[in-house]
Amino acid sequence: MALAATVNAGSNATTFALPAEVFPSEIRTAGHGFAAAAGKLGAAIGGLLFPVVRHRAARAAARHVHPGSAHDEQAVVL
After folding, report:
1. How many domains does the chain have?
2. What is the C-alpha to C-alpha distance for residues 19 and 13, in angstroms, rounded to an integer?
């Protein structure tokens, strides 16, 4: 618990405490809203694109590694 508090002290100070002292509340709330919207948009895009990327990676792996290929023979020799 103490380690987590120590590690997060710097990032929490710069993320939450410093803006609270420097920026007015209107700008802070707009920034928090923008950050929340960007996070949700990134999560949605990642959720939609992950199956596509996984499928393409599986196809590429199946195309390049075949039983008895040079890669398998090198692994046995090493």
Report:
1. 1
2. 9
Express the helix, strand and coil content of the chain in percent, nearest 5 each.
90, 0, 10
**Residue 32 domain boundaries:** 2-77
Distances (CA, A) of 52 to 11, 43, 46, 57, 64: 34, 15, 10, 9, 19
Per-residue pLDDT of the chain (78 residues; tens, 9 = 90+): 677 767 666 666 666 777 778 888 888 888 888 888 998 999 999 999 998 988 888 887 777 655 555 555 555 544
Placement of tokens 């599986």 in the chain: 58
This prediction's pTM: 0.50
